[in-house]
Amino acid sequence: MPKARLQPEGNFPPAPLLRRFAAMFYDFLLCVALLMVVTLLYQQVLLRLILGGEKLRQLADQGALVGDPLLSSLLFISLFAFFAKFWTHKGQTLGMQVWGVRVQNADGTPISLMQALLRFMIAIGSWACGGLGFLWMLWDKDKRTWHDRYSESVVIQIPKAVRKAT
Questions:
Q1: Considering the domain boundaries, does residue 11 fall inside one?
Q2: Do the domain assignments include residue 50?
Q3: In 10 A of CB 18, how many CB atoms?
Q4: Of the four, 40, 60, 117, 162, which is 20 to 30 A from 153 by CA?
Q5: Mean pLDDT of all residues in 112-140
Q6: Long-range contacts formed by 118-124: CB under 8 A, 24+ apart
Q7: Are 127 and 64 in contact (CB under 8 A)?
């Protein structure tokens, strides 16, 4: 059974770098809020239930909660889940929706969960290299970043007239 194509359909141009960065900034703010909520739930609900209020306060005063590997893992998984959910269903995070940007396969279908994982991991590497993976699109003939290339996906810009029509 063929995968359904994302709507609106069309042969849209690659999304420019500044539009991508604007969408990323919007999503960054949402991700900060998500990380704050996950941290609050983990430390003030889960750990409080397991350890009790007094023991939790002692650990916090000693700095023992800094660098908690379980919390770090939960935060990483939460961030991936945020992006994967949006990318694999509608092709757009909330920031991408606002800025008219969408990630998809070349044929207009949503990316798979494996592609989303690959995009997510390579994007982290792109930032770790001082953003070079993103700036790569300025020299790439197809206007694709490292994570676009490695996940075999494209990021397109949906024109405003088409967005308003849907």
A1: no
A2: yes
A3: 9
A4: 162
A5: 95
A6: 118/147, 118/150, 118/151, 119/83, 119/87, 119/147, 119/148, 119/150, 119/151, 119/153, 120/79, 120/80, 120/83, 120/84, 120/147, 122/146, 122/147, 122/150, 122/151, 123/147
A7: no
Alpha-carbon distance 138 to 120, whole Å? 20
Of the candidates 86, 95, 88, 87, the residue with the CA atom closest to the CA atom of residue 32: 95
Task: Provide the residue range defining the domain that includes 104.
Answer: 17-165
Tell me, yes or no, whether 12 lies in a domain.
no
Q: How confident is the model at residue 110 (pLDDT cuts 50, 70, 90)?
A: very high
Of the two residues 147 and 62, the one the predictor is more confident about is: 147
Find where tokens 């306060």 sit: 57
pLDDT for 61 = 64
CB 162 within 8 A of CB 10: yes
What is the amino acid identity at position 26?
Answer: Y
Q: Structural domain tally of the chain?
A: 1
Q: Is residue 35 part of a domain?
A: yes
